[in-house]
Amino acid sequence: MGGSWRLDPTSHHNCLTGISIDSRTLERGQVFVAIQGECFDGHDFLTQASRAGAQMLLVDRPVSTCQSIPVLQVNDTIEALGQLASAYREILRQAGTKVIAITGSNGKTTTRHMIHTVLASTYQGTQSPRSFNNHLGVPLTLLGASTDDNYVVVEIGTNHPGEISTLGQIVRPDAAVLTNISCAHIGNFENLNAIAREKLSLFQHINTGGVMLLHGDTLKPTAFHECTDQFEHHCKVIWFGKRPHNQVQITQVQQHVDQIRFTTNDGLCINLPMPGEHNATNALAAVAIGRWMGLPDSKIADALAVIRPIPMRLEAMVVGSAPNQITIINDAYNANPASMQQAIVTLARRHGDTQSRRIMILGDMLELGERAVREHQRLGRLVAAVGRLEPPGATVAILIGELARFASEPLSRRWPDGDIHTFTQWQDNLPTQITGLLSPGDVVLIKASRAMKLERLIPAIENWLKAM
Questions:
Q1: Which of 125, 127, 146, 245 has the fewest CB neighbours in a 10 Å radius?
Q2: Domains of the chain
Q3: Taking 50 as the threshold, does the pLDDT of residue 212 lie above it?
């Protein structure tokens, strides 16, 4: 890392057990890396880290030498963290640990979770904790793997050009998956082609002889073909999806209340305890990676049949006690136009509770740049069209946010005004106003970008039901 010792480690012989950037969750024996973020500076917590059991401190500015543990100073702790992870990646290669990277505009976390679930049925391995997919999370994921692991699944995201290639140089995957390409974060990119080039830059770093999985139903900008052609000489390319040209293809799919059943073109039948037909496509990537790792189809199917849903990703929950119950579909972790459409269609096609009202609580989709108003108007048209499907697609729309209000304009032209409720901003009494629009027996979808934190509505709904 090109650093210099501020407190020499020669008298310390304790084993370093891992890396942490958070003094609150640091475990004894770990190295504490002091990162300066938007709200906090890790250099302010060196004493807390030492008291929590850190065995070494990594800093990028002069600090007090009263610390009783080794202190290494580098030019930039974030850059040093990436350098350390890159070096450790070579150690993992020598140990035979396969590194599997996931990128895409939507479905990264779910696909990563599915792949880990399939592989963990047979092998020892690890995955990104939560959505550790940025310049901090990716190095921490690699550094959290063991040389005894057979695999590590790394999620890689981006919100500005060049980020994925930089992370790809660190990860150097043996297998890489592109879930799809859509206009997520397009406010930070020139156009959809630029997003495609950004996502596909990961594949330049696949190790020779590796495998590259591409969602064959996604948009295919010109950049898509330009990039894939140059990869085929050093890695195997596998296309997956519903369309006939995909090597791993869905031929039949059935949606039930909170699960889907689908069949592949080679006869593999999967029962997936998750809602949403798009999750069948995500599961195809797990099937392909499982086969690449040598698992029989029976093992793959058994693992996916017992997969547990990820919190706040179409997470279905029943709150309250009979008869005062509401089913909440919590998809509040994040949102962009493509994932919003998937969630709304999933609600509309939900079978098994056709007598229930379908309520959509939708918040702002952020980081869309100049397309923000247009995409929210498009959202309104989608809700208007999908919402009246039979069995009842949706009966009430609750729109929250300065941008979400633009969805009400095209929606109001096709829905009764009494079924549309718009709140331009969050206020303290908003949860109470929203619970006043609900009734026991409703099925409620909650979805918005992360910054909206619409999951805050759930405790209010629970308390309202308890008070009945």
A1: 245
A2: 4-75 (3.40.1390.10), 80-305 (3.40.1190.10), 315-466 (3.90.190.20)
A3: yes
